[in-house]
Amino acid sequence: MARGHQKIQSQQKNAKKQAEIKKSKGHDQKTAAKAALVFTCGVCRSQMPDPKTFKQHFESKHPKTPLPPELEGVEA
Which sequence ranges form a coiled-coil region, renumbered to this chain (predicted)? Predict the structure, then answer.
């Protein structure tokens, strides 16, 4: 076991190494994917990335519900 000054140096070296790994890792895919989901269905609260997908979802999953006004001009 390392003691004293050697232990402190080892901890500092490990902290620096961990910081570099975290910095080089960058963005992870989960947060990027979650940020891309911008349209939310008002009926079931599921999220879609674009209006085309949102309209397809709405027409297939909620056929009896009237189309929201933001989807009126969108072509599916």
Answer: none
